[in-house]
C-alpha cells in the first residue's frame, strides 16, 4: 500500500529546487490551496503566469498521476488541515475543569446513545452463544476496537471461557478459516469497514461459526454477522485530540454482554473465582472489595 504524502508538504520541501515557472505555480497553491483545489488546469496556469504543460510537469514532479489526481490529493490536504484550525471561540478546551467537563459530557452522550440502541434479544442470543462455545475469538483492529477485543478476553477468561484475542489481520483470517460450528467470533468495529474483519466474519460464518459483531448497522461487517449488537454513535467532534466517544459505547455493550455470560456460568466459575481471590490475597495481602485481577 502506498503511504499518502501531503502534497503541500512536498511543495514546501521542493521550493528551492523548482524552476522559476514552477516556483510561481507553487506560490499560487500555497497562497490559497482551497481555491486551487477547485480550479481547472488552465486557470491555475493563468494565475501562475505559465503554461498548462508546465503545470502538468509540476504536478507529475510531485508524484501525482495527473491534474485530477493532484486536485484530489490537494483537497484531502485542505480537509485535514481544517481539522486543526479553530476560531478563537471554538478552541479546544485547555483548562482542567473545561477538559474534565468535555470528557464527561462526551462519555455521557455516548452511553446514552448506546443504551438507546440496546437490543435485548440480540444480547441474549450473543450471551448464550458465548456460554456454549468451544472457543471464542475476540477481534478488532486499530485503536479502541483492538483494545476492546483485548478487554473482552480479560473479562471472559475468568469465567472459564476458552477465549483469545486476535488483532493481527493475517491471523484473524487464519483463525476464521479454522472455525467450526462450535466456535464464536466477537468482533468490535466502529465503522464496520476494515477488510480483515469483514473477511474473517464471512469465512467464519461460512464454516458454521457464530459471528457476533458490535458495530454500525448497515455496514459491511454487520451484513456478515450472525448476531448484531448495534452501535452507531455520531461523532462530530472537530477537536481531534479529544478521544472518539464510540469507545464508551463499546465498553457499555461489552459490560452488558460479559455480565450476562457471567450469570450463566456462575455455578461453574464461582469455585475458580474463589481460588483466584485466594491467590491474589496470598500475593499482596487482604484488600477490601478489590476487583479480581486489578
Automatic annotation (TrEMBL):
Residues 5-81 form the HTH rpiR-type domain. InterPro entries: Homeodomain-like_sf (IPR009057), HTH_RpiR (IPR000281), RpiR-like (IPR047640), RpiR-like_SIS (IPR035472), SIS_dom (IPR001347), SIS_dom_sf (IPR046348), WH-like_DNA-bd_sf (IPR036388). Residues 126-267 form the SIS domain. It comes from the Bacteria. Pfam families: HTH_6, SIS. One of its GO terms (molecular function) is DNA binding. CDD domains: SIS_RpiR. Keywords: DNA-binding, Transcription, Transcription regulation. GO terms for biological process: carbohydrate derivative metabolic process. This is MurR/RpiR family transcriptional regulator.
Amino acid at each position: 500500500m502506498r503511504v499518502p504524502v501531503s502534497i503541500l508538504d512536498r511543495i514546501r520541501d521542493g521550493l528551492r529546487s523548482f524552476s522559476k515557472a514552477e516556483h510561481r505555480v507553487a506560490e499560487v497553491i500555497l497562497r490559497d490551496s482551497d481555491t486551487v483545489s477547485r480550479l481547472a488546469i488552465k486557470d491555475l496556469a493563468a494565475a501562475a503566469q505559465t503554461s498548462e504543460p508546465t503545470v502538468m510537469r509540476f504536478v507529475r514532479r510531485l508524484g501525482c498521476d495527473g491534474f485530477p489526481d493532484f486536485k484530489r490529493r490537494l483537497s484531502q490536504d485542505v480537509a485535514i488541515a481544517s481539522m486543526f484550525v479553530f476560531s478563537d471561540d471554538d478552541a479546544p478546551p485547555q483548562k482542567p475543569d473545561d477538559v474534565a467537563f468535555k470528557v464527561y459530557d462526551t462519555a455521557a452522550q455516548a452511553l446514552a446513545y448506546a443504551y438507546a440502541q440496546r437490543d435485548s434479544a440480540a444480547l441474549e442470543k450473543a450471551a448464550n452463544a458465548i456460554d456454549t462455545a468451544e472457543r471464542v475469538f475476540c477481534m478488532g483492529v486499530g485503536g479502541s476496537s483492538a483494545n476492546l477485543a483485548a478487554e473482552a478476553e480479560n473479562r471472559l477468561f475468568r469465567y472459564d471461557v476458552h477465549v483469545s484475542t486476535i488483532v493481527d489481520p493475517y491471523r484473524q483470517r487464519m483463525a476464521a478459516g479454522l472455525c467450526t460450528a462450535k466456535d464464536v467470533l466477537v468482533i468490535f468495529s466502529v465503522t464496520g469497514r476494515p477488510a480483515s474483519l469483514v473477511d474473517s466474519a464471512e469465512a467464519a460464518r461460512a464454516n458454521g461459526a457464530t459471528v457476533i459483531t458490535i458495530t454500525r448497522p448497515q455496514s459491511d461487517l454487520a451484513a456478515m454477522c450472525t448476531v448484531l449488537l448495534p452501535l452507531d454513535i455520531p461523532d462530530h467532534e472537530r477537536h481531534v485530540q479529544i478521544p472518539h466517544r464510540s469507545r464508551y459505547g463499546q465498553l457499555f455493550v461489552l459490560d452488558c454482554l460479559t455480565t450476562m455470560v457471567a450469570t450463566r456460568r456462575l455455578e461453574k466459575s464461582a469455585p475458580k473465582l474463589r481460588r483466584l481471590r485466594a491467590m491474589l490475597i496470598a500475593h499482596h495481602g487482604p484488600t477490601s472489595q478489590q476487583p479480581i485481577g486489578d
